[in-house]
Write a structure and sequence with these properties.
- By secondary structure, the protein is mainly alpha-helical.
- The protein has a single domain, classed as Transmembrane di-heme cytochromes, Chain C (Fumarate Reductase Cytochrome B subunit, Up-down Bundle).
- The chain is about 65% helix and about 5% strand.
- It has six helices and two strands.
- The protein has a two-stranded antiparallel sheet.
- Helix 4 runs antiparallel to helix 5.
């Protein structure tokens, strides 16, 4: 196996920028909800709004990059047989010393379970967070666009539920990234240096 550049510079940049912005949004969001107090309410709201706009701007570039490079294909689910093999690997084989059923390459970085997880992140969790967040942000204008009868409390609950779904995704993502590589912290190193075995 040779070491190849698995993640180019922009890929690593947007991954880490996304991670930092999401952590800022989670910290400021739960501060706004009163879970703890790092900032006062007004500071937390302002930080949350600025980080949201920065994240949306970053995502415009990330979507453009995915579309122009063809990397969007990485998220398309693969065969059911491979998915079942990956589920068996994560549930049983990983603890029994069984071999990994997916061979990672530059063209096929994500295994079938990762494809499903990232696809759900991109087409379910992220849109719900953005739509509910924008509705929340533009609450003073609801009457102008004909949705004045909607419930702000329900929108807030939807936004918070999507944030919890994102936290669950992050916990699983970090756990697997830190524990399933052949070498200690191998996936973390790969996302820092770009290099990984193929």
């Amino acid at each position: 196996m040779s070491r190849v550049i698995m993640y180019n510079g922009f890929e690593r940049f947007w991954h880490w920028a996304l991670a930092v912005l999401i952590l800022i949004l989670l910290l400021s969001g739960f501060n706004i909800h009163g879970t703890y107090q790092i900032f006062n309410f007004e500071q937390a709201v302002n930080i949350h709004i600025v980080a949201s706009w920065l994240l949306m701007g970053l995502l415009v570039f990330v979507i453009f990059w995915h579309m122009t490079t063809g990397e969007w294909k990485q998220y398309i689910p693969s065969s059911t047989n491979k998915l079942i093999a990956m589920m068996k690997f994560y549930a049983i084989d990983i603890f029994m010393g069984g071999g990994h059923p997916h061979h990672k390459t530059r063209k096929e970085k994500l295994n079938p379970m990762q494809r499903m997880a990232y696809l759900s992140l991109h087409i379910v969790i992220t849109p719900v967070i953005w739509f509910s967040g924008l509705l929340y942000l533009f609450y003073p204008y609801w009457d102008n666009i004909g949705i004045g009868s909607w419930s702000l409390g329900i929108i807030a609950l939807i936004h918070t539920a999507a944030a919890f779904a994102l936290i669950a995704f992050l916990i699983v993502h970090l756990y697997l990234a830190l524990t399933t590589s052949e070498e200690p912290l191998g996936y973390l190193k790969a996302m820092i240096t770009g290099y990984e075995k193929e």
